Amino acid sequence: MKPHQTSYRFCLEPDAPIATLEQVLAIVRRLDLELRALRTTSTPGGVEVVLRLAGQDPEPLTLCRMRLHNLVGVLPIRELSANKSDYQPATFDISLRC
Fold it and tell me: What pTM, to 2 d.p., does this model score?
């Protein structure tokens, strides 16, 4: 089990959301992070994404966020803490304006 967890919420620009999402998942894979959950929702302004990640150390999670900020097509990222044992994805308000 990987003890450090976090969730990221962001929108993808509508131009090429699938290609951008592939780049996001490649970053997660290269950093050896565990993808615990992925939720996408289509909106008029793009695609809303919620990622739940876990790792052995907190540094790769921070590095993941920094690399996501550098991707073309990823709009501002919000971090949702997921270190509580009673984490429930459905309890988060995921309304985000794309």
Answer: 0.81
